Amino acid sequence: MKALLRAFLLCAWLIPGAASAACLQSGFEVMSWNVQTFGNIKPAREAVIRKAYEAAVSSNVYVVAVQEVANRSGMDTLLGLLPGGTRQWAVSFEDTPDGQDNAIAYRRDCATVTAEGFLFLDEQGLPDRSKARHPIRWASLQAGAFKWTMLSLHLTFQGGDAASSARELGYVLDWAVERLKSQQVYGDFMIAGDFNLPTEKGKEASKRSKDKKWIPLEPLLKANGAGTLAVFVDEPTSRAHKQPGNNYDHFIVSPALKGSVARVGRVPPEAVDAADHGSAAMVSDHYPVLMELVISTAAAAGGTAE
Fold first, then answer.
1. Is 146 helix (H, G, I), strand (E, B) or coil?
2. What's the CATH number where 241 sits?
3. Is 14 part of a structural domain of the chain?
């Protein structure tokens, strides 16, 4: 049965106008991927990236939170490399002087963006980089009857200084706590990206496991009054030298959304490893992470990040 469904979805890619009919109403997948300084990509790297995206991004992935987009040209290239290309994919994105911008890509026929922007703005209406060095992108999305707000973030690394990552996380959690107080108005939300911080289990599995200053997410959530949020992905997701390293990439979801999570974790490493094996080029220094959501008819709250 699964084989037939995948064949049908593949046909939807190839037959113009058929994609919307193939969109699943009962659930879908969301991916997050730090794509590593994605700007002017050389042909050798573009070739291995294309292979990795074809292997990792299935037809059930409707939304991809993207980190480390260098510029608009890089964003356009990335959309073109996703399976189905720009005919199937659109994006919530604005280029900033940062050079490591965040974005939210989505399948045109299966999801829509109803509102979007940067999470923190200064008095001039520009991204407030005192709260997030890499401006956090948010978008209110709808897939079928399900509505939610998604953040794509990349917490500052600062040479591995976990305190800097935790400081930025604190601002994000302040937003999350305020949003939880207005849950009936704003609905479900998801925070996805490269946190440069581990889960408790993820730290144990990481090369930085002995780093006492590398504080896990769970106690940070509790300390910031956000202990009811659910945090996912325990596997090492960084990929320096094409090998799993540290547990950096995660999904954090609102309490109501937790019950819709059917499956979550790092995408099998071979999807990426096979693509750049034997090549001097590298797909990325991170593995993607994936969350499958099963949506009930009752899950239909909406709103914006504001």
1. strand
2. 3.60.10.10
3. no
Measuring CA to CA, which residue among 291, 288, 249 is closest to residue 272? 288
Task: Determine the Cα–Cα distance for residues 112 and 140; give it in Å rounded to an integer.
Answer: 8
Range of weakest confidence among 4-13, 71-80, 202-211, 287-296: 4-13
Range of the domain at 175: 26-294
1 occurs within a structural domain? no
Task: Return the sign of the alpha-carbon dihedral for residues 153, 224, 215, 161.
Answer: positive
HSE-CB at 225 with a 13 A cutoff on CA atoms is 12
Domain total of the chain: 1
Whole-prediction pTM: 0.91
What number of other Cβ atoms are within 10 A of residue 150's Cβ?
A: 27
pLDDT tens digits, residue range 109-164?
Answer: 999 999 999 999 999 999 999 999 999 999 999 999 899 999 999 999 988 899 99
Q: Are 149 and 190 in contact (CB under 8 A)?
A: yes
Within-domain flag for 196: yes
Residue pLDDT, tens place only, 36-93: 999 999 999 999 999 999 999 999 999 999 999 999 999 999 999 999 999 999 999 9
| Helices and strands, number each (H, E), in the chain | 11, 12
